Amino acid sequence: MLELKNIDTYYGNIQALRDVSITVGEGEIITLIGANGAGKSTTLMTICGVTPPRRGEVLFEGRVINGVAPNKIVQQGICQVPEGRLIFPDLTVQENLDMGAFLRSDKDGIGRDLEQVFDLFPILRERRRQLGGTLSGGEQQMLAISRALMARPKVLLLDEPSLGLAPLIIRQIFDIIKQINRESNTTIFLVEQNANQALKVAHRGYVMENGRITLEDACHKLLANDAVKKAYLGL
């Protein structure tokens, strides 16, 4: 469904990604793990068209999307939950969710999807008239995921969803990620520093170091890999 082929991405003269190739199949949860600054978020920004690659191709459903405007990429079915959540703090929960559906015109479908996200995160139903900026960190992450789901994505990109959250909330967020994938067959590309959690929820994983993919395998094999355990799992 989604493929990166030999991607080089730069910030000015600084190369952030080097010959990155990743494949994401329909219905899969794929995770990209690595240290802070490895290039994980840049990979997502490259997919979304925010930092287009200087070399290589990004393909979605077999079509090259290099150079396509970010809003058009969302319309095609790719939506990102950014690092740090980046909800609209001065809008209510309901208004944030409405923004997620901004590019849609199917009112009945929007209404059904709204009920689905409220079923996923009942606390948001209770907080629907509350300003986003007054929510807890965990609630803001739930809102950010729900806002993305309101775009009805085929591929959901998640950038560090566990960042800054308490362990109990992290477990809840990862349970919801599995539920979204299982119940709606939404394809998920998960970027995460919490390698232990990410490898337990995903089907396949990639390891990134200094802008390069250094390892890829089924997640159960990566969890048993001595180098991965030493570098990312604290074992």
UniProtKB/TrEMBL annotation:
<dbReference type="InterPro" id="IPR030660">
    <property type="entry name" value="ABC_branched_ATPase_LivF/BraG"/>
</dbReference>
<keyword id="KW-0813">Transport</keyword>
<dbReference type="InterPro" id="IPR003439">
    <property type="entry name" value="ABC_transporter-like_ATP-bd"/>
</dbReference>
<dbReference type="InterPro" id="IPR017871">
    <property type="entry name" value="ABC_transporter-like_CS"/>
</dbReference>
<dbReference type="GO" id="GO:0015807">
    <property type="term" value="P:L-amino acid transport"/>
</dbReference>
<keyword id="KW-0029">Amino-acid transport</keyword>
<dbReference type="GO" id="GO:0005524">
    <property type="term" value="F:ATP binding"/>
</dbReference>
<protein>
    <submittedName>
        <fullName>Amino acid/amide ABC transporter ATP-binding protein 2, HAAT family</fullName>
    </submittedName>
</protein>
<keyword id="KW-0547">Nucleotide-binding</keyword>
<dbReference type="InterPro" id="IPR052156">
    <property type="entry name" value="BCAA_Transport_ATP-bd_LivF"/>
</dbReference>
<dbReference type="InterPro" id="IPR027417">
    <property type="entry name" value="P-loop_NTPase"/>
</dbReference>
<dbReference type="InterPro" id="IPR003593">
    <property type="entry name" value="AAA+_ATPase"/>
</dbReference>
<dbReference type="Pfam" id="PF00005">
    <property type="entry name" value="ABC_tran"/>
</dbReference>
<dbReference type="GO" id="GO:0015658">
    <property type="term" value="F:branched-chain amino acid transmembrane transporter activity"/>
</dbReference>
<feature type="domain" description="ABC transporter">
    <location>
        <begin position="2"/>
        <end position="235"/>
    </location>
</feature>
<dbReference type="GO" id="GO:0016887">
    <property type="term" value="F:ATP hydrolysis activity"/>
</dbReference>
<keyword id="KW-0067">ATP-binding</keyword>
<comment type="similarity">
    <text>Belongs to the ABC transporter superfamily.</text>
</comment>
